[in-house]
Amino acid sequence: MLVSIFAAAEFGVAQVSQEAHTADEVIAVDKGWTAAEEKGDVAYVDALLLPEYRSVSPDGSTHSKEAIVANTRKTTPERAAMIEKYLVDHPTDMAVTINGDTAVLTFTAVTDAKKLIRSCDIFVYRGGHWHAFYSQHTDAEKA
User: Fold this and answer.
1) Using CA atoms, how far apart are residues 78 and 73, in angstroms rounded to an integer?
2) d(Cα 115, Cα 143) in Å, to the nearest integer?
3) Any idea what DSSP says for residue 141?
4) Which of 29, 39, 97, 122 is most enclosed, with most CB atoms within 10 A?
5) Distance of alpha carbon 26 from alpha carbon 116, whole angstroms
6) Domains, in order of start, for the chain
7) How far is Cα 131 from Cα 101, in angstroms, rounded to an integer?
């Protein structure tokens, strides 16, 4: 994996390399997103999300880039622990499909011998970097 704009923002590096145009890099960027939200790394989240970014929660509510960045600013050790616990309690398989400069990352849970798509993140590759454009989350386990 190459040094990304997000890692550069985190470490204050002036030189920024392009990210690989691969499924592995999309997963790495998404994992970096989770870590950034846990740590309150607003610069990473702000650089990752496109201005038009939207996230749709299981209840149908929509959240803008501004709301996600503002939420990242509110990170506390308790919130970080909650995120970590959720990830441990809800293991998922990650899969990426790339078509041109668009990548769809799905998070699949296996419960009761069924594969359930829990959520997906859609990324676009612009200026040598993957950027989040849209996320959709479900309560698939409750179905």
Assistant:
1) 14
2) 12
3) G
4) 29
5) 21
6) 5-142 (3.10.450.50)
7) 10
Q: Is 81 helix (H, G, I), strand (E, B) or coil?
A: helix
DSSP 12: T
| Residues 41, 9: Cα–Cα separation, whole Å | 9
Q: Residue type for 15, please?
A: Q
Q: Write down the pLDDT at residue 100.
A: 97
**pLDDT digits over 1-22, tens only?**
333 444 444 434 334 568 899 9
Sign of the four-CA dihedral 22, 23, 24, 26 = positive
Residue scoring higher pLDDT (143 or 30): 30
Shortest CA distance to 101 belongs to which of 33, 15, 31, 25? 25
Under DSSP, is residue 120 helix (H, G, I), strand (E, B) or coil? strand
Provide the total of helices (H) and of strands (E) in the chain, helices listed first.
Answer: 5, 6
The pLDDT tens digits of the residues spanning 42-64 come to 999 999 999 999 999 988 999 99
pLDDT of amino acid 3: 37
Amino acid symbol at 117:
I
